[in-house]
Design goal:
single chain, about 290 residues, alpha/beta, TIM Barrel, methyltransferase, Dihydropteroate_synth-like_sf, Dihydropteroate synthase DHPS, transferase, methionine synthase activity
């Protein structure tokens, strides 16, 4: 699976302070570390960036591209003017990725022509006028609307990274299966489109963040997910994404296929955790934090 490094994020204390102080050192250090870890994109997340967003995005893009020129950047903020400033400052032969364009007309009617102007790839976020879609069918409806509008603006399906929206396991357990069902439909809806997701959302608020992220990524990839936004410091997750842990992938698939029904069916302790996590993510049990203990 392709990976988008999430660590240049304003909510990370060191990075948030570096953005505020216009200090390039931490930003460039993390960008180089993400490159060394094999990330396929580097995400620059400014958050809302309501004050001085355009100037900040322009500065961060230039700062990262001083040291990393061969990996595309994902420009991530809800400030549309800041996105355009980043696209205007973007240099080199790589294609920028705009993260993200919501399925809300007041947003996409402005953002899609802008992205087409710079021929950027886009994350088509399936967050509609009523917020989070309730199931795979509402996701499909929003996907058709947003991707059709992107085509009309001049963006081919291959430039679209559909994001079905990952929700926390401990709050919206059924939504995680709805995402898997939607992914099985995506190529019939938008042939050639890519896909992505904010993977760590699935474990948000739980004490079992890394294993849940790792297990759900395996499930998403099997369902057809093209890429995930990930923490490059999670070495096991990166190894799984690069196809280096087929043993763990096989365990998750066997749980999905009903060949493994109990953690006691495997002897390895890591595999036991993966069986438990897979059962929770599949809705075979009602999730609780104590399930892994």
């Amino acid at each position: 699976m392709k990976t988008i490094g999430e660590n240049l994020n304003v909510i990370k204390k060191e990075i948030g302070q570096a953005f505020k102080d216009r200090n390039p050192e931490p930003i460039q250090r993390y960008a180089l570390a993400e490159k060394a870890a094999g990330m396929d994109w580097i995400d620059i997340n400014l958050g809302p960036a309501r004050k001085g967003g355009p100037e900040l995005m322009e500065w961060v893009v230039k700062t990262v591209q001083e040291v990393v020129t061969d990996i595309p950047l994902a420009l991530d903020t809800s400030n549309i003017e800041a996105i355009e400033a980043g696209l205007a400052a973007y240099k080199g032969d790589t294609v920028p990725l705009v993260n993200s364009v919501m399925a809300r007309p007041e947003r996409y009617t402005v953002m899609l022509p802008m992205c087409a102007k710079y021929q950027a790839d886009i994350v088509a976020l399936l967050w509609g006028p009523e917020g989070l879609p309730r199931d795979e069918n509402e996701r499909a409806s929003l996907c058709v609307e947003l991707c059709y509008a992107a085509n009309e603006a001049g963006l081919a399906n291959e430039k679209l990274f559909v994001d079905p929206i990952i929700t926390p396991l401990n709050i919206q357990q059924e939504q995680l299966m709805a995402n898997l069902r939607f992914m099985a439909m995506l190529q019939d809806i938008v042939p050639g489109a890519k896909s992505t997701n904010g993977l760590s959302n699935c474990s948000n608020g739980t004490p079992w963040r890394e294993p849940l992220n790792q297990i759900y990524m395996i499930m998403l990839e099997r369902a057809g997910m093209y890429s995930s936004i990930v923490d490059y410091e999670d070495e096991l997750l990166v190894a799984i994404a690069k196809g280096q842990r087929p043993d763990l992938v096989e365990v998750v698939h066997k749980v999905q296929d009903g060949e493994i029904k109990d953690p006691g069916d495997v002897s390895d302790e890591t595999q036991k955790v993966f069986v438990k996590g897979a059962q929770a993510l599949l809705g075979h049990i009602l999730y609780s934090d104590s399930w892994f203990k």
